């Protein structure tokens, strides 16, 4: 008995009888043996013809099973490769997003630098013009001085006139002080930082506008944070604030050491000094705060103070005073505008 195992799913068992060896002297026996041999030969041929297709089919099935297994292995490997490619693609996309974000930041910084360079160029040009004019002015002063030296009488008269003018100026300051603040008024050489009087200028400006300054020097305007920083850094400065409401009631606040930082510090209020005045020390709430605008939030509030009150200012949470707020006319019922809380 012999068997062939093709696979676990298909099994064929072949059974055949061994050939009998017949030999002897009996003719009848020999005849029977020859008949058996012929029968065995015919049976074997018949069995092979029946079994051969089954064997061929089993072989084909086995081959297909192998091909199927190979294809499944290839599909699994392709799926692994696809997942690996997708992971690499996600990493590359994240890097691209980071690069785009960094590029946006660089563009913003470059725009700020360009604006600062433009401002510096304007200042340089102004200094160059002054430098060109200065020699001419010095020549005129020299000629005048020579003329006065040649005429002692004229020099004496000029000096007496200067003393009289100085006395008149002192008297004018006293009269103005009495009318405005009932205290020591700021000297006439002070620089106006902001002026608000009629609401013709919009003070809800961007960071760039507040840095450079805006408005009309003959009307409402803001000097500019960059200029204000350079002024307060060059030498000690005082800050004088004069307020007047629609009932013509006036008050003032004065701080004896006003200093703000540069743009890298967001123009924060570094010092105020000692307070004096009648308006109340509202600005102390904003000491140390950075400047905020509609496009740059530096306050400590949960919401955007500059956007909420439509103005740039040294907001805290949000303010006790805001001199850059929306200008409200006398008939307005809104409370939030140009405010100074006492």
Write a structural description:
The protein is mainly alpha-helical and 342 residues long. The protein contains 5 helices and 12 strands. It has helices at residues 27-150, 152-180, 207-212, 225-234, 305-308; strands at residues 2-7, 10-14, 194-195, 214-215, 221-222, 239-244, 250-255, 259-260, 269-271, 275-277, 321-322, 339-340. The strands form 5 sheets. Strands 3-5-4 form a 3-stranded antiparallel sheet. The chain has a 3-stranded antiparallel sheet with strand order 6-7-10, with no helix packed on it. A two-stranded antiparallel sheet has the order 1-2. It is rod-shaped. The protein starts with a strand and ends with a strand.
Can I get a quick summary?
By secondary structure, this protein is mostly helical.
Largest sheet: 3 strands, antiparallel
How would you state the average pLDDT, rounded?
78
Q: Which H/E pattern describes the elements?
A: EEHHEHEEHEEEEEHEE
Q: Give me the side-by-side strand order of the main sheet.
A: 3-5-4
Strand portion:
5-15%
Q: Looking at the structure, what is the overall shape?
A: rod-shaped
Which features characterize this protein?
3-stranded antiparallel β-sheet, disordered N terminus, 342 residues, mainly alpha
List the helices and strands and how they pair.
Blueprint: E1 2-7, E2 10-14, H1 27-150, H2 152-180, E3 194-195, H3 207-212, E4 214-215, E5 221-222, H4 225-234, E6 239-244, E7 250-255, E8 259-260, E9 269-271, E10 275-277, H5 305-308, E11 321-322, E12 339-340
Antiparallel strand pairs: 1-2, 3-5, 4-5, 6-7, 7-10, 8-9, 11-12
